[in-house]
Amino acid sequence: MGNPPDMAASVEDALAAIYSGAKAALRPIHDKVMDDVNRFGHFEIVGKQLYVSLHRRKPFAMIGPATETCVEIGLDLKGVDGAGRLLAMPPGSLCSHVVKLTSLADVNAELTAWMRAAYDAAG
Question: What is residue 50's three-state secondary structure?
């Protein structure tokens, strides 16, 4: 699962800052994504200024608001073609793919499968 209790406060502080003001309404989308990812097993959450990064042996996802109405998930899914809402990024980008979420309904089995594939590949 996510971070141990001693690191949880700093991650929560980062999330409170990231999802503040006009972006506060996006926090439930983030929380629903994390509810799904927490079922995968152990990983670390690293709070950044504009997003959180999820790591195993290496990073597998980045989650944060892209705009006031959209949460963006960056995934490390090398070797996977982009299709539909799984958008392939140009070579050299931080993540190989991006998925944009604008509602709780966007957090579905398809997204969970992509996140699980990235989690498994990060080993």
Answer: coil
